[in-house]
Design brief:
Length: 427
């Protein structure tokens, strides 16, 4: 297996291109199921999760073609055509590897009148049930059956009638599934306490471009007026705000000065606020965001929360940065119950972090030291890379398949900024 080797202590400077957003792409791709016309998505990141989703779509009989991108380019263009769907089952071996496969449930139900998807099972950052996805679909008129590890959703003859659902807890994935199920329902549907992450706005904008009628985009109350059919579209995936935030932390921990090209500051305000509170300069520029750190870093106290709060997907990377701040930072993880797996690894690099339940106290240390490390999820892995960039000596990060799921050509991008980083094959 590959590993990344980082020689820490190099100040990062220059320009880094931010890729298309993984989490947006994973909800835009299944929209192809909603129409028999082609859907073209531009600015799709080149990631293992996107390849996995393409494979899943192919299993349904959806044709996919990739055009117009040279190997040296970041991003690519994919056209998906679900002219005829030949299979409506998402099998265990695909869903197990990629939880986002559950996002075919809503659009497949809308298009075919039924869908069968394996239950995703446990996952490294907690229990992650899908009960809210199912309750929202039920509220819109679907009949749900659970058997042999699979969930089957069935619409009444003539399609889903639509309905009203109020989420007891904000869920990004359940909001996405419900939206995709409701756009071609026979009547009106409403969602209350819906997630309003920028990726949900991206989904709504694509659905609108395909002919859907959605009111309240960007708010937690969405009204969807069902239309008889959707048509094809060409759409550009939004920039990845989590990738941008991750590189902002990388720049800051090295005392660097980096331009995050294509980052959209309005979509990452809580991260920007946290960085500014830590003493990092963050400024909007045309087509991007400039991040610079020159003085000492300060401790920060915050909790993760649904958007517009501080994203749980940024918690590990910010924690790596705060390892080098003066004083004690207090981070509270409110979204997932088991999202501190990076803590023991950061401590092996000389950090001083204590956890108690959902709270982590990060005591700043004057230096980090390189070590061999590995993590069990995507953002945790990135936190180790960030720490490695500032550590004395060599850091080896193992289990790269996590990083390959979510960071497009990480080592190439960081090398553009002057990091001493390379990928080696074979463990
Ligand atoms: C998405 C993101 C993930 C991010 C998360 C929170 C994608 C592909 N993934 O995941 O990177 O960390 O949002 O911003 O976009 N919950 C339930 N029942 C459900 C669904 C969720 O109890 O049916 C709970 C979860 O356990 C969690 C909370 O709701 O505690 C939020 O989860 P959710 O927003 O659904 O996360 P995902 O959509 O899985």
């Amino acid at each position: 297996m590959d590993k990344i080797i980082i020689e820490g202590g190099k100040r990062l400077s220059g320009t880094i291109p931010v890729s298309g957003a993984k989490n947006a792409a994973l909800t835009l791709l299944p929209c192809a199921l909603l129409t028999d016309e082609p859907l073209t998505l531009r600015n799709l990141p080149r990631l293992a999760d996107i390849d996995g989703f393409q494979h899943l779509m192919n299993q349904f009989g959806v044709s996919t073609t990739i055009a117009g991108s040279r190997p040296e380019d970041f991003g690519r263009v994919m056209t998906l055509a679900a002219t005829r769907i030949t299979n409506s089952v998402a099998p265990y071996e695909l869903v197990r590897k990629m939880r986002a496969s559950i996002l075919v449930l809503g659009p497949m139900l809308a298009r075919m009148g039924e869908a069968t998807v394996s239950l995703p099972g446990g996952c490294a950052i907690g229990n992650r049930p899908i009960d809210l996805h199912l309750k929202a679909l039920e509220a819109f008129g679907a009949h749900i059956e659970l058997a042999a590890g699979y969930v089957k959703a069935i619409a009444p003859d003539g399609g889903l009638p639509g309905g009203r659902y109020s989420f007891p807890v904000v869920s990004v994935g359940a909001t996405e599934n419900a939206l995709m199920a409701a756009v071609t329902a026979r009547g009106k549907s409403t969602l209350h306490n819906a997630a309003r992450e920028p990726e949900i706005v991206d989904l709504c904008n694509l659905l609108a471009a395909m002919g859907a009628e959605i009111e309240g985009i960007g708010t937690s109350d969405l009204t969807i007026h069902g239309v008889p059919r959707l048509h094809g579209a060409t759409y550009r995936v939004m920039s990845d705000r989590i990738e941008a935030g991750s590189y902002a932390c990388a720049a800051a921990i090295t005392g660097g000065d980096v331009f995050l090209k294509h980052a959209v500051i309005e979509e990452m305000e809580a991260t920007v606020q946290a960085l500014r509170d830590a003493g990092v300069h963050v400024e909007p520029r045309p087509d991007g965001v400039q991040v610079a750190a020159d003085g000492p870093l300060r401790a920060v106290t915050l909790s993760t929360a649904p958007y517009p709060g501080f994203a749980t997907d940024m918690q590990a990377q910010l924690m790596a940065l705060l390892c080098r701040a003066e004083g004690a930072s207090v981070l509270t993880e409110t979204i997932f119950e088991n999202r501190y797996m990076h803590v023991p690894e950061l401590n092996r690099m000389g950090a001083h972090i204590e956890t108690s339940g959902r709270t982590a106290i990060v005591h700043g240390v004057p230096r980090l030291t390189g070590a061999e490390v590995m993590a069990t999820d995507l953002r945790a892995s990135m936190s180790l890379v960030i720490a490695g960039l500032a550590a004395e000596g060599e850091t080896q990060v193992h289990r790269l398949y996590h990083l390959d799921r979510g960071y497009e050509r990480l080592e190439e991008k960081l090398a553009l900024l002057g990091a001493q980083i390379e990928r080696l094959g074979g463990d």
